[in-house]
Design brief:
- The complex is a heterodimer.
- Helices cover about 30% and strands about 35% of the residues of chain A.
- Chain A is an alpha+beta fold.
- In chain A, strand 2 and strand 3 form a beta hairpin.
- The radius of gyration of chain A is 38 Å and the shape is extended.
- Chain B is α+β, with helices and mostly antiparallel strands.
- Chain B contains 2 helices and 8 strands, in the order E-E-E-H-E-E-E-E-H-E.
- Chain B is elongated and about 55 Å long.
- In chain B, the strands form 2 sheets. Chain B has a 4-stranded antiparallel beta sheet with strand order 4-7-2-8, covered by helices on one side.
- Chain B has a domain of about 90 residues: Aldehyde Oxidoreductase, domain 3.
- Helices cover about 20% and strands about 30% of the residues of chain B.
- Classes of the chains: A alpha+beta, B alpha+beta.
- The interface between A and B is medium-sized, with 32 and 32 residues.
Chain lengths: ~250, ~140
């Protein structure tokens, strides 16, 4: 893959306030680090950077004020609502050093299993690979046209470009065709009928504690009852006896 | 309808829905997604309405995912009841939605079909939404 040139400027101000102002002016913050050198804070044009990322360029010639440096796009952050670029991470690269990176997997062809009523499912969307910086592929194409129902494509079946090796287990499934699962629909309650309430975890404890307390109280009462029963009986005997005696 | 199997407390405090979604804001399973642009308590009934609208349109063609779950119990007092007397009883369960939350995802259909399906779902949603599609990232 050819490397593209990107103009960058050094920036001395950092923090969210300055970055926000920079983004309003059409530039985005970036950082360059790696190879045991000090990290450098940069700013790059939003339009140029967006074009670079959308064209799947990973190796970039970064044109700074005094020099041009070969760098690798390590990470990109997007705003989830506007889908615009927010920040870019660049790393320094040595052209003779192997590097690990993640590359997009693109499925090619129309599987024959779909014609038979199957559904194509892509399980792996990015593949972790190891290669030299000069041999980084833009994407990895996987032919799924011969897949019938129940067939799978695994990592070991993927044809990788020359000089590129996968770092994940060969048995990992990339894509497959299977019959669509029938949707299990939960029964909807009839109108006016209250929904079954979920189990309340804390209520259980309270109930258990309450039961224990009641049991405790019951045991105390049970223990106290015979004494109480005995006591009145014992207490009642003398007067009874006395009574009898009195009666006598 | 979706509902939690077990909960810690029957009644929750209302909480705050300030700011944008910082999680559940990217496409995880499918190729296309419906994203909320506003904040709302999305009830289990509204999620179910979205699911039904989608299942009518998709059929057996593609796959469909619901990315939100109604964890939060919402309480309310019955009609014509004076104030006071404590917090009301749980009425329904809702998912807390913030701007940027992905609500539903689809795969295995073309972009036009996905747009049509999400248009049907959007009519059932109490918030403004937009369709987003998976794009290449580094």
């Amino acid at each position: 893959m050819e490397s593209m040139t990107l103009k960058a400027e050094l920036r001395d101000k950092k923090g969210s306030k300055h970055c926000r102002r920079m983004r309003k002016q059409g530039a985005i913050p970036a950082v360059l680090y790696g190879h045991k050198e000090n990290p450098v804070m940069l700013s790059v044009g939003l339009k140029e950077a967006t074009k670079l990322i959308s064209q799947r360029h990973r190796l970039v010639k970064l044109a700074l004020a005094d020099k041009t440096e070969q760098v690798f796009v390590k990470d990109v952050k997007y705003d989830s609502l506007t889908e615009s670029l927010v920040h870019i991470d660049f790393t320094r690269v040595a052209m003779d050093e192997m590097m690990t990176l993640s590359v997009e997997i693109v499925l090619k062809g129309h599987p024959k299993g779909i014609i038979e009523g199957g559904v194509l499912e892509q399980n792996l969307r990015n593949l972790n690979i190891k290669c030299l910086p000069t041999e980084i592929p833009a994407k990895i194409e996987v032919d799924v046209a011969p897949l019938g129902i129940g067939d799978l494509v695994r990592v070991k079946d993927v044809k990788l470009p020359k000089g590129v090796t996968a770092t994940v287990d060969g048995e990992v499934v990339v894509a497959g065709v299977h019959m669509p699962k029938e949707e299990v629909v939960a029964p909807t309650p009839a109108e006016g009928v209250a929904l079954a309430e979920p189990e309340v975890l804390t209520a259980k404890k309270e109930a258990a504690e309450g039961e224990e307390k009641e049991k405790g109280k019951g045991a105390e009462k049970a223990a106290a009852k015979p004494e109480a029963e005995k006591k009145p009986a014992a207490a009642a005997q003398p007067p009874k006896a006395g009574g009898k005696e009195e009666k006598k | 309808m979706l509902m939690p199997k077990r909960i810690k407390y029957r009644k929750w405090q209302r909480g705050i829905r300030r700011g944008n979604a910082h999680r559940g804001n990217t496409i995880a399973f499918g190729d296309y997604a419906l994203m909320s642009l506003e904040d709302v308590w999305l009830s289990a009934q509204q999620i179910e309405a979205g699911r039904v609208a989608a299942s009518h349109a998709i059929g057996k063609e593609g796959r469909f995912w619901i990315r939100v779950f109604p964890h939060k119990p919402i309480t309310g007092k019955p009609a014509e009841v004076r104030m006071g007397g404590g917090k009301g009883e749980p009425k329904f369960y809702a998912a807390e939605i913030k701007p940027g939350t992905v609500l539903f995802e689809i795969s295995g259909v073309t972009e036009n079909v996905a747009r049509q399906i999400f248009n049907n779902i959007a009519h059932k949603m109490p918030v403004k939404t937009k369709m987003v599609k998976r794009f290449h990232t580094v």
